[in-house]
């Protein structure tokens, strides 16, 4: 009896079946929907910051205010806003983003004639490089991250106010300007009015002398008047 041999099927490599994505395949620019701004487009704003320090400094609040102003200026209707404090390098704990996508699916079913979009200001609010270290190359998400985001969003459209493929320096410039506005650093401080120092000295010097007579220390007077203790020392000599 002859032996029969079966040919083993060659397993396909996983990498060969994986589709390569570009950032613009996963995330769109809000400008692509310009003709639908007033009637069809319905946006769900999403904002993210990486640390609670940024949250306390008001970055998230400023980002939200600026995004909503941009939508209002374009006459785009928006729904509930979603915010969270989480790293942008991972997607497994992005609860607010998942909720925004879930709401987008619900609204798309409820309003079949509307274009429902989850929108943020820059691409790195959705996703940034897994090994991000502040450089341009590390900011770009890899194909695995883009595949994960594509799977997470499903049929929902993700869009940005700034182009998703904008150069790193352009995005950084936008972030810097946003940070300056949050901290109130909007250019050079105004020049002092001539004679302002003399007027301030004439007003506060008598008070400082009286406080010194009452037994207050230079440091205590500094806290009361908001004047450097060395200046107070010169005044009370």
Report on this model:
This protein is of the alpha/beta class and 237 residues long. Helices cover 46% and strands 12% of the residues. It has 2 domains: 19-183, Rossmann fold; 196-235, no CATH class. The protein contains 11 helices and 6 strands. Strands 1, 2, 3, 4, 5 and 6 form a 6-stranded parallel sheet that branches. Helix 10 (218-225) packs across helix 11. 19% of the residues are buried. The mean pLDDT is 85.
Summarize the topology.
Layout: H1 14-17, H2 23-26, E1 27-29, E2 41-49, H3 52-56, H4 59-73, E3 77-78, E4 82-85, H5 95-110, E5 115-120, H6 136-139, H7 143-153, E6 157-160, H8 168-183, H9 196-213, H10 218-225, H11 229-235
Parallel strand pairs: 1-6, 2-3, 2-4, 2-5, 5-6
Helix pairs in contact: 10-11
Give the SSE order as H and E letters.
Answer: HHEEHHEEHEHHEHHHH
Oligomer state equals: single chain
CATH superfamily of the largest domain: Resolvase, N-terminal catalytic domain
Q: How many distinct helices? A: 11
What is the C-level CATH assignment of the largest domain? Alpha Beta
